[in-house]
Every structure is written in C-alpha cells, then in structure tokens.
C-alpha cells in the first residue's frame, strides 16, 4: 500500500484553511495543521510539501527578501495579491492565488513535487500570462474624475479619520488614499514626513495601497524589509515605511478606489483591534466619498486582478527617452524621478524665472534637501549663487551642500531644506482674518536677517533681492532663513545697471540705468520694506503698475505704519522714513543699525508695552502672576461653592495656604509652588477641574490681548502665539509647536521640576480655550506627560 504524501498547511484564515484541507484530504493527501502559530520541528520533518501563506512564509524566513532560509520541502506560496506571486514565482516551487480553487491547488502540488527543492527553479515571470492591470484603465481614471476623487487637496473630515486611525492603531502616521493610473493621492493624512505632505501623494509604483486597490483585499505587512516584493519599494529603502496595514475603500461602479492605512517606520504587529479600527475607518471613508457623488458606497463582490510590479524611472532614463522621442531636454523634473541615482524627487517647492526648486530625499540616508534646477541653458545666475553660498556661513543663510549636472548638462544646486513657510505666505494667510504678525516675532526675524546680511556684506556680497518670498521661517529650529542668492552682487563691482529685483522692495536706484556701485544700503532698504509688510500686512509702496510703484519709491511717498496698524509709536514711522529714503546717502546704511533702531521703536509702541505687566525678581524659582492665583480660586469657588473651595484650601500645607492668601496683586509674580499644590488638591476633588481653571484663565485674559496683537483667529496663528501668551502669566515653561500636517500640530511644553503633570493639564485647558476662539472644531490629546520631574509634556492638536 502506497504511503500517503503529507502536506504541511500554514494558512491564517480559518475558512480558507478548512477549504484547502478538505480539498487535499479528499484527493488522498495527508494534511498537517500546526496547533500553534509556528510549525513544530516534527511537522517540518514530516512534510513532503508546504502550502503557506506568503506572510507566514516570510515569518519563517523562507520568502524573506534578503538571505532567505531554504524551506525543508517544496514550497507553494499563497496570496491574494497577484503582483506579489508573479514577483516571487521564480524563487519557489509554485504559487496559488487566493481564494484558492481545488484545481489550482492540486495543480500547484503536482508541479512542486516534480521539482527537486535543491534544483534551480527556472519558471520565468515573463512566461506567466498577465491580465491587463485594471488600475491602468483610462475609463477608471475618467470615473474618478467624474466623481471628483482625484483632488490632491486634503479633506478635513478625512484628515480627522486618519487621525483617529493613527490613535486607534497606535502608529505615527495614517493615510486615506485614492489610486489612479499614475499616482497615489493623499486625501486625508496625519503624521507624514514633510516632503510627502507637501507633494500630496506619490508615484503609484511607490504605493503599498495600489495592491489593496488592485486586489480589493486587506494588506498587512509587519516588516517590509523582509517582504520579497515590498522590500524594493523606495519608501522602504528611505526608511519611511517599515510596517503597513491597509484596507480597501470601495465605491459602487468603480470598485476599490484606494485605501485607509496605518503606517510606521518600525516593524510591528497589528492585532484584531487594529484591524477593526481600519475596517470602521474604511467604511466611514466609503460613505463619505459616496455622499459626495450620491452613490452606494459598497460593492458586494471583490474583483480578481493581476498586474506586475512597477519601478520609477531615473532622471537619466527619462531624459534619454525624451531625447529619443524628440522631447525637450530642459523639461521639468517630476515627483518620482531619481536624480544622479541619489536623490528621489518628492515634491515641487516653487518656480522662478530661471530655475525650479524641488524637495528631494537622499536615497541612502533619507536626508531631505532642496534641489534648485535651471530651466534655461545659461547657468550664470546659478553659478553666481553657488560662488556666494560657498563663502557664506550664518545660521540665517541657507546652506549649500553641493552641485551637479543633469542629463543635457543642466546645472543644479543641492541646498539645505528649510521646513517652514515664507514670510509672504505668513502675511497672505493672516490677511483674510485681518491678523498681523506679533511685534516680538517681527523684531526677532529682522534681527536674524540683519545678521545674515551683515555677514554677506563682510564677505563682499550684496543680496539684492530681499523680499517676503525669499525669507523662510524654519518651524523646526525657530529661525528666519534668507534664500535665493541668484541676484547676488559683489560690493563695488561697478556694474552700470543692476538687473532684477522686485518693485516695491528693491531700492529705487537698483531699478534704473546708470546706477552707482552696489552698496549694503540696497539690502537695508529691502529689509525695511519687508519689515513694513510684516507689521502692516501690505507693501510700503503700491502703485497701479510697476512703474507707478517705482515713482512712489522715488518720491518716498509712504503711508505711516502707525496709520495701518494703530498702536505703533511715531518712532516707528520716523524709522521707516529714514530707512526707505530714496536718496542712498541719507538712508540708514547698515542692516544691523536698522534692527537696533526697530527694537527701540517697537519697545516705545503702546501695543508692545500694554500687555506686559510689571515683573518682579525671579531668582530661578518658577513663578506665576497673581491673576492666575485669583482666577483659579474664583473658578474653583464657582464649581465647588464657597464652602467647597474653603475646604480645598484647608487641605493645603499651612505655608502654601498662607502664600496663597498673600497673592493680592494681579500683576505681581509669586512662587508657583502654592498654585501647584492647590491644583493638585482640586484635581483630586473635581476631575477635570484643573483643565477648567486653565480655560478660565484663557477666557478672562485672552480676548483683550489677542485684539491688541491683531492675531488672525486661525488655529495655526493661535498656536504660534500660544507660547508668548503663556509667558505673560508664568516665568516657567517653554512651548514648542511643530506642524505635523495641514490640520494638526504637535505641542511640547517643557516644565521645570515639580510642575508636571498638573501644570500640563492646566496648560491643556488654556490651549483648548485659546483654540476655541478660532471657530474651528479642534481636538487636543495628551500623548505624554511627566510625573513630577523636569521634562516635556507632549500634546497632539488637530482641527477641521
């Protein structure tokens, strides 16, 4: 009697496992199914063949991308993803697409057992018959367009879904995607790296979500570096994605249009609760997208699909293909291009008259850089910029890392990437709400840029194009950075005509023929014009045309800044009259002298003086204003009643009780220790009371301050001034805000010894009330807080 052949069956889904086991047993095979998560040695030793799900085979090491372990018997891989099977079919005995049919399973076993496990498997991916990729179908793209699903603008409701997924699953990032024939579009995201957030998507070939959409099936990857297909993905190579869990978003008439996914840069497992969170999110997104188009969100049957993996082309390959087709060798780069086999282009940052600036990620280390690429054959301006930058070293001057040439000999510079917005964008964003930049921020920016310009002048250079669009505010390092040195000139170069500059910001002598030699006063004039725009929200000279603006500059006709922003002192108007003087010999020559004069003039302004109450000596002890003490007791009495508030004070140590009673002056500073003890007692008596006291402080004191500062009532602008506002009430605590997406931010509050976590709760209430003045729906979640020692309390803020 012939011995039964044994199949070791490793399948995680019970329904599929039971079906395959029944098929095999009814065909005369002996089936072993390990009782635990991993097969025992005796199971492996007894197996004549192994039928294993791809993920389980990766876990066992048999299908790893690097240094796989030879399986102990012929290996048959199963997966719902045809692209994965096609990619790995040449390395295993056979493959089966799930859900498996009896015919496919038995045919794979016969094929596997005809081959020795030690022979080279010569199956070629090219021999497989591939069905057309449905994601390439132009009709599908047309349907996505018809339903308005190919927009790269994030949807606030879908951003909120992504934030819920990230919190529920416990990953740093979550994305809601739409997949079309060429791109992966982010329509809701949180926690993405800056370059991907700016780009609003990636090439489809970079996308994990394309597999989810193509096969209309969940994809769970615990470690992409071990995956035989996804390990080659650029996002994995750049250490941006290591683990992934995604579920399809399905619409009637289209099928799976994209995915809701949770992403981490570290390997991890996804439990049943995580998958349930993603299932709920996918259903919410399907319903939201269906409501837009008046459709039913769900399809009843997933589609069977097949495709082959795609890889992005390098810049040189694109150039060669364009040249062969008669294309333009000066054509712009696009996200997904690989420059010099080193830099992945991920987004377009901006376009100028002679160049385009791209955000790129270094292939090996993942460093973000800015690539400035010429868009015309003459590289003189870019060479001048490189020559200047290589000699300049200052924290507020963008750094040059290197240079290169693209196919077609186009020159490009590799520059420091500054994470933040330009002053031009800051002014424009505040304008609709009537908000203006805070005086302290303007003074700090001017001081830093003046130092950068003085450093340039000392090296013999003039920038000659200082304007709001050429000053970036680095949100990560809290600094202003001067960029775009393409018009840079050597001092005393004797050029009769200074080509370029921006009307309204460039000094008038820079815009006319037969000008004198370039001098530092050119940059001082431009810095003063930028300062005026920051203070008032408008340029100092605004004619009906470029020539009209130049005529106003030559006449020195400027609207007093104090008229555009009431509260500025006459000293500010007098300073602008001198700094924007059309005659260079009567103008303030030095940018540092201008910055010093501006600081003095702003200090004399009522707007700057009024909000700052008198302060006493600090001696390093954390202190708070008497106003904080008084409002805390008032709010506690409102919540607990006078008798309850009195009992609260009785629970304090006698020294704290006496110190609390002595805080009679709202403007004076007092040690914060009694306040912390009082808040601790309140927190034990009334859950949520500490946050309520922080909110009460904000409601009582902030409206007048915000009106004085003329802050735009947007969440972004309010978070920007949150730190300075807190410092008006306390001498302790440093607040740092980092934008994590278009609708979210991470807030770190550094507290001295003894103040955490109670003052973190108090500050949370303060921030909630502050953000509520924006009129937006806001969410604030405490991610981490210390337990009494010095350190950071970390909050996540979102808005829609």
In short:
GO terms for molecular function: ATP binding; protein serine/threonine kinase activity. By secondary structure, the chain is an alpha+beta fold.
Structure description:
The chain is an alpha+beta fold and 800 residues long. The chain has 5 domains: 122 residues, Response regulator (Rossmann fold), CATH 3.40.50.2300; 160 residues, Beta-Lactamase; 101 residues, Phosphorylase Kinase, domain 1 (2-Layer Sandwich); 188 residues, Transferase(Phosphotransferase) domain 1 (Transferase(Phosphotransferase), domain 1), CATH 1.10.510.10; 177 residues, H-NOX domain. Helices cover 38% and strands 19% of the residues. The chain contains 27 helices and 28 strands. The strands form 7 sheets. Strands 8-7-6-11-10-9 form a 6-stranded antiparallel beta sheet, with helices on both faces. Helix 15 packs antiparallel against helix 16 and helix 23 crosses helix 24. Keywords: ATP-binding, Kinase, Nucleotide-binding, Phosphoprotein, Transferase. One of its GO terms (molecular function) is protein serine/threonine kinase activity. Pfam families: GAF_2 (PF13185), Pkinase (PF00069). One of its GO terms (biological process) is phosphorelay signal transduction system.
Task: Itemize the secondary structure elements and their pairings.
Elements: E1 6-10, H1 14-26, E2 30-32, H2 41-46, E3 49-53, H3 54-60, E4 75-79, H4 82-88, E5 94-97, H5 102-113, H6 138-146, H7 156-169, E6 173-179, E7 183-190, H8 194-199, E8 201-203, H9 209-215, E9 219-221, H10 234-237, E10 243-251, E11 255-264, H11 272-293, H12 315-324, E12 338-339, E13 343-351, E14 355-362, E15 368-374, H13 380-389, E16 400-405, E17 411-416, E18 420-422, H14 423-430, H15 439-458, E19 461-462, E20 471-474, E21 479-482, E22 489-490, H16 521-536, H17 546-555, H18 561-564, H19 570-579, H20 591-603, H21 606-609, E23 623-625, H22 626-650, H23 654-661, E24 669-671, H24 673-685, H25 689-709, H26 715-727, E25 734-741, E26 744-751, H27 758-772, E27 778-784, E28 791-799
Parallel strand pairs: 1-2, 1-3, 3-4, 4-5
Antiparallel strand pairs: 6-7, 6-11, 7-8, 9-10, 10-11, 12-13, 13-14, 14-15, 15-17, 16-17, 18-20, 19-22, 20-21, 23-24, 25-26, 26-28, 27-28
Helix pairs in contact: 7-11, 15-16, 15-20, 19-20, 22-24, 22-25, 23-24, 25-27, 26-27
């Amino acid at each position: 009697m012939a011995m039964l052949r044994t199949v070791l069956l490793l399948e995680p889904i019970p329904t599929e496992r039971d079906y395959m086991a029944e098929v095999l047993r009814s065909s005369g095979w002996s089936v072993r199914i390990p009782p635990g998560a991993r097969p025992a040695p005796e199971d492996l030793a007894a197996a004549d063949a192994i039928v294993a799900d791809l993920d389980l085979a990766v876990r066992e090491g048999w299908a790893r991308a690097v240094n796989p372990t030879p399986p102990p018997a012929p290996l048959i891989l199963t997966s719902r993803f045809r692209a994965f099977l096609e990619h790995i079919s040449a390395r295993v005995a056979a493959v089966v697409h799930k859900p498996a049919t009896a015919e496919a399973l038995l045919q794979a076993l016969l094929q596997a057992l005809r081959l020795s496990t030690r022979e080279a498997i010569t199956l070629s991916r090219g021999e497989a018959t591939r069905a057309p990729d449905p994601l390439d179908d132009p009709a599908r793209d047309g349907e996505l367009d018809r339903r308005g699903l190919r927009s790269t603008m994030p949807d606030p409701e879908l951003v909120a879904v992504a934030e819920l997924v990230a919190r529920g699953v416990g990953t740093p990032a979550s994305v809601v995607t739409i997949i079309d024939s060429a791109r992966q579009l982010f329509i809701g995201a949180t926690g993405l790296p800056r370059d991907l957030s700016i780009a609003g998507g990636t090439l489809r070939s970079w996308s994990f979500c394309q597999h989810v959409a193509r096969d209309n099936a969940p994809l769970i990857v615990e470690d992409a570096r071990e995956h035989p297909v996804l390990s080659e993905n650029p996002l994995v190579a750049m250490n941006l994605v290591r683990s992934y869990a995604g579920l399809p978003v399905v619409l009637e008439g289209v099928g799976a249009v994209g995915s809701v996914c949770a992403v981490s840069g570290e390997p991890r497992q996804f439990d049943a609760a995580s998958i349930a969170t993603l299932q709920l999110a996918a259903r919410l997104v399907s319903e939201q997208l269906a409501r837009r188009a008046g459709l039913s969100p769900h399809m009843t049957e997933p589609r069977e699909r097949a495709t082959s993996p795609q890889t992005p082309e390098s810049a040189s390959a694109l150039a060669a293909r364009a040249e062969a087709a008669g294309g333009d060798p000066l054509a712009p780069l696009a996200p997904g291009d690989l420059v010099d086999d080193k830099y992945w282009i991920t987004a377009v940052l901006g376009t100028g008259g002679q160049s385009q600036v791209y955000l790129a990620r270094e292939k090996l280390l993942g460093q973000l850089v800015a690539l400035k690429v010429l868009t015309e054959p003459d590289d003189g301006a870019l060479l001048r910029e490189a020559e200047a930058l290589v000699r300049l070293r200052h924290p507020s001057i963008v750094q040059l890392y290197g240079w290169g040439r693209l196919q077609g000999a186009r020159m490009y510079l590799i520059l420091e990437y500054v994470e933040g917005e330009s002053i031009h964008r800051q002014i424009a964003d505040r304008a609709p709400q009537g908000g203006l930049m805070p005086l302290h921020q303007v003074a700090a920016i001017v001081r830093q840029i003046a130092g950068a310009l003085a450093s340039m002048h000392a090296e013999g250079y003039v920038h000659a194009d200082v304007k709001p669009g050429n000053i970036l505010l680095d949100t990560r390092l809290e600094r202003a950075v001067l960029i775009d040195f393409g018009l840079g000139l050597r001092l005393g170069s004797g050029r009769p005509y200074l080509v370029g500059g921006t009307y309204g910001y460039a000094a008038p002598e820079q815009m006319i023929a037969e000008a004198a030699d370039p001098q530092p006063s050119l940059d001082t004039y431009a810095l003063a014009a930028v300062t005026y725009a920051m203070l008032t929200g408008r340029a100092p000279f605004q004619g009906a045309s470029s020539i009209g603006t130049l005529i106003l500059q030559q006449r020195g006709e400027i609207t007093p800044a104090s008229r555009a922003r009431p509260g500025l002192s006459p000293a500010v108007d007098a300073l602008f009259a001198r700094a924007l003087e059309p005659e260079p010999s009567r103008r303030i020559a030095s940018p540092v002298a201008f910055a010093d004069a501006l600081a003095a003039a702003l200090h004399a302004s009522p707007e700057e003086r009024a909000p700052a109450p008198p302060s006493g000596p600090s001696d390093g002890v954390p202190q708070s204003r008497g106003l904080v003490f008084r409002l805390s007791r008032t709010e506690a009495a409102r919540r607990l009643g006078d008798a309850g508030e009195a009992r609260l004070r009785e629970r304090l140590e006698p020294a704290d009780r006496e110190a609390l009673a002595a805080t009679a002056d709202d403007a004076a500073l007092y040690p914060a220790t009694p306040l912390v003890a009082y808040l601790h007692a309140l927190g034990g008596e009334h859950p949520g009371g500490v946050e309520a006291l922080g909110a009460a402080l904000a409601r009582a004191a902030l409206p007048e301050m915000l009106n004085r500062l003329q802050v735009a009532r947007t969440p972004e602008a309010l978070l920007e001034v949150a730190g300075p506002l807190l410092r008006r009430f306390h001498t302790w605590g440093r607040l740092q805000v980092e934008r994590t997406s278009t609708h979210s931010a991470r807030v770190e509050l550094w507290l001295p010894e003894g103040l955490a976590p109670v003052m973190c709760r108090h500050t949370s209430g303060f921030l909630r009330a502050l953000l509520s003045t924006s009129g937006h729906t806001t969410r604030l979640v405490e991610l981490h807080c210390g337990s009494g020692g010095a350190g950071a309390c970390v909050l996540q803020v979102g808005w829609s």
